[in-house]
Specification:
The protein is an alpha/beta fold. It has helices at residues 2-18, 37-52, 70-78, 111-119, 121-134, 159-162, 173-181, 194-199, 210-215, 241-246, 249-283, 296-305, 317-326; strands spanning 24-30, 57-62, 84-86, 136-151, 167-169, 187-188, 205-209, 224-226, 232-240, 287-289. It has one domain: 3-Layer(aba) Sandwich (D-Maltodextrin-Binding Protein, domain 2), CATH 3.40.190.170.
């Protein structure tokens, strides 16, 4: 009996020695609800962070804007009152305008484009610029797919069909101007207010990727989807630069490695899940319409009228041309 007790005690001591006495747990704000690409990115990051650090570092996700609207979390991270945040890239643009290049309509034309830009030299430049401009560091990239238009009133396939609709957009100048180029004045609105506004018919529609439409249960308040692929939604994972600089060199490497692993996991998640989610939305009663003439009218109006307005804001036309060159496309003059 004594031998058994000693053996058990010895085993317990060995197990305790293999588990860190204290694991640093970081708060991670997530703008979207559960089930979407933001949560998937966050889960992959936490799993990788625990693995990289041997269990000494971990994180806790707060989904559905529990820690504030997405733009608010940028401010909180910059001031060191929040550790990490996962948010739509358009909500970083007000703090670091050059990042807005990736929210210009029809710059990103595929998931391959999105991965190539964010994981290459252009993406690294944006990481450095965001540290300087906003006091936050992008350590990972989530991929949510193209933003599609949803509304509760009618099928939309042409610019003419848009007229009369009240469409919610983020408080983002590029997106506002894009809708203006199509002839309507959109309604800028914080993300946390959107579902209620749709439900109460304050606005008729909004645009977000299929994954987000499903995660936020917009199928409960929206009927029609237009496969309007004007912006590919990229979801950066940011860390407070103050927090990052306070970490040891090893801890910083754990965070960066976990961010890279989460980026790859997000790309795989989108490829595996988007078509299934699309089918699920149809099964819930939503109707999908393709834009007429392969979006040519939407593309022409947006690129002609919107791109030039933001050359100065994003740091010059050469910044846009750098992105286009990285994708093997012709520069604008």
């Amino acid at each position: 009996m004594k031998m058994t007790i000693k053996l058990l005690a010895g085993t317990a001591i060995c197990l305790m020695a293999s588990v860190p006495a204290f694991a640093a747990e970081y708060r991670i704000a997530v703008g979207d609800g559960a089930g979407g690409t933001q949560e998937a990115l966050g889960k992959a990051f936490v799993e990788a962070l625990e693995k990289e650090s041997g269990g000494e570092m971990t994180g806790k996700l707060f989904v559905n804007g529990q820690l504030g609207d997405e733009q608010d979390t940028v401010t909180a991270a910059a001031t060191g009152t929040l550790d990490f945040s996962i948010l739509a890239i358009n909500n970083i643009t007000p703090f670091s305008p050059s990042v807005g290049t990736l929210t210009l309509p029809y710059v990103i034309l595929s998931q391959d484009d999105a991965e190539k830009v964010t994981q290459g030299e252009v993406g690294q430049q944006m990481v450095e610029q965001t540290i300087e401009d906003a006091g936050v560091r992008i350590i990972g990239w989530g991929y949510s797919g193209f933003r599609v238009l949803t509304n509760s009133k009618k099928p939309v396939s042409t610019v003419a069909d848009l007229q009369g609709l009240v469409v919610r957009v983020p408080k983002n100048e590029i997106m506002i101007e894009t809708y203006k180029s199509w002839g309507i004045n959109p309604t800028p609105m914080a993300w946390g207010e959107t579902f209620a506004a749709l439900q109460q018919k304050v606005v008729d529609g909004q645009d977000n990727p299929y994954m987000t439409v499903n995660a936020m249960k917009f199928y409960e308040v929206q009927k029609y989807i237009t496969d309007l692929r004007y912006i590919f939604s990229i979801e950066p994972l940011i860390v407070s630069e103050a927090l990052f600089e306070s970490l040891s060199e090893d801890e910083q490497q754990h965070v960066l490695a976990a961010g890279e692993a989460a980026t790859q996991a997000s790309a795989a998640f989108l490829r595996e899940q988007e078509s299934r989610i699309r089918d699920e939305l149809v099964s819930r009663g939503m109707e999908i319409t393709k834009p007429a003439d392969d979006e040519k009218e939407f593309i022409e109006l947006a690129t002609t009228n919107v791109w030039p307005k933001f050359y100065d804001q994003i740091g010059g036309v050469e910044v846009l041309n750098g992105v286009l060159a990285s994708l093997g496309r012709d520069p604008v003059q």
